[in-house]
Amino acid sequence: MARALGLLGNEWTVLILQRALLGTTRYSGFLHELPISNSVLTSRLNTLVDEGLLEHRIYQRNPIRAEYRLTDRGRSVWSILLAIWDWERTWVSHQDETLPTMSHTPCGCDFRPVLACTACDKAVAVQDVSTSWGPSGSWARSSADAMTRRRSGRRAKPVFFPETMEAFGDRWSSSMIGAAFLGICRFSEFQSALSMPPSLVADRLQLFVAQGVLTTVQHGQRANWVEYHLTEKGRAFFPVVMLMLTWAEKWYRSEEGPALIHVHDDCQKEFVPTLTCSHCGRRLKGGDVLPSTAQFASGAS
């Protein structure tokens, strides 16, 4: 999970994968479509090749010309990006004006992705899933590598998926979001479970409360205790979290076994998430999902 969060917690990586899923393959294409520097683009492409999400192919020898093609591992991130798109468009101010609607080509309708259980096909929300640590699971092994998560380039702050990157853009934020979904709600619990410095706990809690992802609740029996609970906006981030964890388990699975075990309470089967169309109810496939406007065709615009 640390490796997956290290990769997908970087906005440039997410944007390069988004462009690749829409058909961009050449270095010049990524550079033209994204407001990114040559050095950052080269670094991120090399990382994606090293991690097996892109394949570097030479298609011409004289002069040398190459392209970057998605591997199966790279193509499989489409559902995570779709969940990020939906959450940002629904919950982040002004994103409904900058991100396009999506069309499901089999039914021909604009839609929203719905998180569902592959075992029973029922829609699933955060309260419908029970999660426990697996054989390879621990907080220490699930925190992303800080060395892979700095964002640099022509822009100083995330601008395309700003609040998603606040949640996954550094090791402490992603760990705290995960802890909140596992039921941790007090300052001392965050500090103890994650071995975080108190100043960082306070900073991240303040950030998530300001964003409306967490809200403060007075403890019912202890007047001097304040708890931090996920809001409706915070709970709506659950599809992004589950799809990212499932992707991590599939492609970076430890020999010891899964880091987390998820059970769908309704059918009592292992919860493996899928996305369905809000209009026709059919399972979504990456090739059947297209932007219904050209508004997001170029990140540089």
TrEMBL record:
Pinpoint the HTH hxlR-type domain residues.
1-96, 157-256
Q: Which UniProt keywords apply?
A: DNA-binding, Transcription, Transcription regulation
Tell me yes or no: is Transcription among this UniProt entry's keywords.
yes
List the Gene3D superfamilies: Winged helix-like DNA-binding domain superfamily/Winged helix DNA-binding domain
Which terms in the Gene Ontology molecular function aspect does this entry carry? DNA binding
The record's annotation in PROSITE patterns points to: HTH_HXLR (PS51118)
Question: What Pfam families does this protein's entry cite?
Answer: HxlR
The record's annotation in InterPro entries points to:
HTH_HxlR, WH-like_DNA-bd_sf, WH_DNA-bd_sf
Q: What is this protein called?
A: Helix-turn-helix transcriptional regulator
Say which species the protein is native to.
Answer: Leekyejoonella antrihumi
